[in-house]
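Subgroup meeting minutes
Present: P.N., E.W., G.H.
Scribe: E.W.

1. P.N. recapped why we're keeping a running log of single-chain structure predictions: easier to compare across weeks, and new members can see raw inputs and outputs side by side.
2. G.H. added today's entry (374 aa).
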Amino acid sequence: MNAPLPRWADVLLLPAVNLLIALLVAGVVVALVGQNPRQVMEVLVQGAFGTQRGLSYTLYYATTFIFTGLAVSVAFHGGLFNIGGEGQALMGGLGTALVALWLSHSLSAWVLLPLMLLGGVLFGMVWAVIPGYLQAYRNSHVVITTIMFNFLASSLLAYLLVNRLKPPGTMAVESAAFGPAAKLPGMQQAMAWLGVEWPSSPLNVSLFLALAAALGVYLLLWHSRAGYRLRAMGSSETAAAYAGINPRHQIIFAMALSGGLSGLVGMNEIAGVNGKLLLDFVGGAGFTGIAVALMGRNHPLGIVLASVLFGALFQGGAEVSFEVRGFSRDMVVMLQGFIVLFSGAMAYVIAPWLARALALLSRKPAADLGARHG
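Output recorded in log:
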């Protein structure tokens, strides 16, 4: 029987090895379709990190993925697989937008923006707590109910936009524009306050909100009693119940926190960029968050790093499809698929081999030391 990987290797080394294998396999496939893997990788990295503007777009995408990745992670630590982040983010955006539509012309930004954030969190929480309640008290599996609630959220948002929120006489399925007070400062504006010149991009100060959320999740899960109870529930529901922890309460708590984190997506996409409620502003980020959480080993630091990686794939992939002739956007999706495959489904196929390699490396210095003293 193989020894388990050390925590540091599980969080940092295993994802790095998975990524390397995914890139090697993707490189082989790229070569087989007649492209130059080195050229593709150079353009991708340059497009994602080589300029301030490219880096800004990478971090803009990463911000949303941090929120949805943390949402998946919190539920997972409670023993739940919440795949309803897409619907919870849509409802969170709806809550953010309703506050902005109602109050953006009468309140200052200092008052309005926290209220928009609170509205998004509460709407996301409510949309997640309902499946949580159904599992805790009606034994309905949360995977099935959260899938259903994704479709319900999309349908509800479409109905509200078409029949209630769309300005009369317009064809676009979107709400009216918010007042200026509902706009989060962009990174260009924020850096200008510090005397730093920064290019225009969708990146905004919700990046700092995402990093604060990651820190908050870390402190909650590993440095609080509530987090200990949640992780105990995720490790063994029977043992947690024997220790006096109410499993039903933990399910509700985990889903509420998970939904609230997904609901924060609206601050980046709606308050930070669009300034109005759109039909599909989430764009699949709820599902990408599952891959982010898997690759980040459900640890906030790993999730931040994995989010930057997926942000780089989105931004750098767009540059590759534009700069490299014959390389389509579908090939970038293929690369993302390989990373998801090796980070998720294949992770624990690779883990035993990595554990053996680490064990051999740890024994070799000891053997050398014994030989020198023999």
